[in-house]
Amino acid sequence: MNRSIFDLTDRIIVITGATGILTSSVAEYLAAEGARVVFLGRSQEKLDKALDGCRARTPDAQCIGLVADVLDKQALEKARDLVIDKWGRIDALINGAGGNMPGATISPDKTFADLDFDAFQQVVDLNLHGTVLPSLVFVPAMQEAGRGAIVNFSSASAPQALTRVVGYSAAKAGVDNFTRWLAVDMARRTDGKVRVNAIMPGFFLGEQNRRLLTNEDGSLTERGALIARNTPFGRFGESDELHGGIHYLLADASKFVTGTVLAVDGGFSAFSGV
User: Fold this and answer.
1) Which SS3 state, helix, strand or coil, does residue 9 take?
2) Which residue, 208, 201, 184, is CA-closest to 243?
3) Do residues 51 and 41 lie in contact, with contact meaning Cβ atoms separated by under 8 Å?
4) Which of 20, 173, 180, 251 has the maximal Cβ count within 10 Å?
5) Is 191 left (phi over 0), alpha (psi -120 to 50) or beta?
6) Any catalytic annotation for residue 168?
7) Which has the higher per-residue pLDDT, 56 or 215?
8) CA dist., res. 95 & res. 249, Å (int)
9) Are 91 and 148 in contact (CB under 8 A)?
10) Domain presence at residue 52
11) Count of the separate structural domains present in the chain
12) What CATH number should be reported for the domain holding residue 33?
């Protein structure tokens, strides 16, 4: 019987930053689709909680959690070797680790001259270097297996200038460029067997941006209302609305797709605001 081009059964998928709101939702979904999912995170406690959520949704889920910082090459190599020892190969990597810091953000009462450069460097390290280094560690395993898919996390702040988030924007713009660079390199070196793409979420509520976009009573802040007005759907995204795009980029349905940045943003990137 022919398998569906969307079938992810037994695909071994490593997800960095897998304890976050969006990434844990994606991890749970992929496990429910029959993939073998490796949760990577810095906190064993958070990993345990995420794994409990995965197994609550799918009791027979094949999912494991491994502690590894995306900026620690030795920890990533150890995680890679543990996965290969357990399941024999690695089919995909989702680079979901990322985040922002107040010091790398210009608040309305500040100017660029107030930027905390140390915080800027940390944000670039986490988002850009924290995408490059896991790719560096896990790509050889995909090359050896003769198949692989990488999905990086971009941002709506990457292709255009959004006020305030100077560090995060710079880092995610770098992720977009790295996605295209590695896609071309892998296409040439593997005859298209290893593909590299990115997902570009629009605005989704999470712990890091909730206070920026919503008030304590749940109403929108001035910035939150501005974003909603500039999103043709008129709302923020729900975490499950990322599932389909990521599934597509991992599956054979996209086997001739590489070097793309897929927007899942309710039309935000298409709208000029006019």
Assistant:
1) coil
2) 201
3) no
4) 20
5) left
6) yes
7) 56
8) 13
9) yes
10) yes
11) 1
12) 3.40.50.720
| Cα 54–chain centre separation | 18
Residue 137's nearest CA partner among 69, 204, 86, 193 is 69
What is the CA 214 to chain-centroid distance, rounded? 23
- Output the average pLDDT for the chain: 94
Containing structural domain, residue 25: 12-202+242-262
What pTM does this model have? 0.95
DSSP state, 264?
E
Catalytic residue (choose from 168, 178, 203, 204) = 168
- Distance, in Å, from the CA atom of 176 to the CA atom of 197, rounded to the nearest integer, reads 9
> pLDDT digits over 160-179, tens only?
988 889 999 999 999 999 99
Q: Report d(CA 141, CA 81) in Å as an integer.
A: 9
Residue 211, in any domain of the structure: no
| Strand pairing category for 194-201 and 148-153 | parallel
Cα 215 to Cα 53, 218, 228: the distances in Å are: 28, 5, 14
Amino acid at 71: L
Digit-coded pLDDT (tens) for 12-63: 999 999 999 999 999 999 999 999 999 999 999 999 999 999 999 999 999 9
R_g of the chain, CA atoms, integer Å:
18
Give residue for tokens 């991890």: 27
Question: According to DSSP H, which parts of 44-89 are helical?
Answer: 44-57, 73-87
Quick check: is 228 in a domain?
Answer: no
